[in-house]
Design brief:
By secondary structure, the chain is of the alpha/beta class. Strand 3 (about 55) and strand 4 form a beta hairpin. The chain has helices at about 20-35, 75-80, 95-105, 130-135; strands at about 10-15, 40-45, 55, 65, 65-70, 85, 110-115, 135-140, 145, 150, 155, 175. Strands 5-2-6-7-1-8 form a 6-stranded parallel sheet, sandwiched between helices. The mean pLDDT is about 90. The chain contains 4 helices and 12 strands, in the order βαββββαβαβαβββββ.
Length: about 190
């Protein structure tokens, strides 16, 4: 059991491939914070509109009302009265998210960040490498490989499309293990 610090903030990062349960774990932690009667808020980038424009939603349809922000700096203003701040789909923010998370933690807030650590090419995604380095606690979740059933750490894009960002779910992506993943650059 990890004993959490008192009278200080910290950063928790939940990362992994698509379908690994990142958003579900974020929602679980935020619900527990609310049970403890801590003021909480949750944020997601404007670009993520897959399931809902006003909620974060996991692939298994767990959901929580969220604030939609265009820029990470908005989180500082909107969360001023909160003790726990959740940020979903962190990979879609720019690098300023790292500084925002650092500032929130220095203001004695518990910051819980969820996002893809790698894109469909297997490369570090957005601000996630910086946030992972800044994290006080880091959990890398794994999905199940859709091909062989092993643990999956990769996100395989299954349609032919260019560009790092392509919003989608099972219609565009699959979880794959290292052996079943086919790098599009190869």
């Amino acid at each position: 059991m990890i004993q959490r610090p008192k009278n200080m903030g910290w950063i928790e990062v939940i990362c992994g491939s698509m379908f690994s349960g990142k958003t579900e774990e974020l929602i679980r932690r935020l619900r527990r914070a609310r049970i403890a009667q801590l003021p909480t808020s949750i944020y997601k980038p404007k670009i993520d509109s897959r399931y809902s424009k006003s909620h974060i939603v996991s692939h298994n349809k767990s959901e929580m009302k969220s604030h939609i922000v265009g820029d990470a700096k908005e989180i500082l203003i909107l969360s001023k009265d909160d003790k726990v701040v959740g940020i979903d789909e962190a990979q879609f923010f720019d690098i300023s998210l790292v500084k925002t998370c650092r500032k929130l933690a220095s203001n004695k807030k518990r910051v819980i960040v969820a996002g893809l650590d790698r894109d469909y090419r297997g490369l570090p995604f957005g601000p996630m490498p910086g946030i992972m380095c800044e994290a006080d606690y880091l959990d890398k979740l794994q999905a199940i490989c859709i091909i062989c059933g092993n643990h999956a750490s990769y996100t395989q894009r299954i349609i032919n499309a260019k560009g790092q960002v392509l919003i989608g779910e099972m219609d565009k992506y699959e979880a794959r293990c290292r052996n079943c993943y086919k790098n599009p650059n190869d």
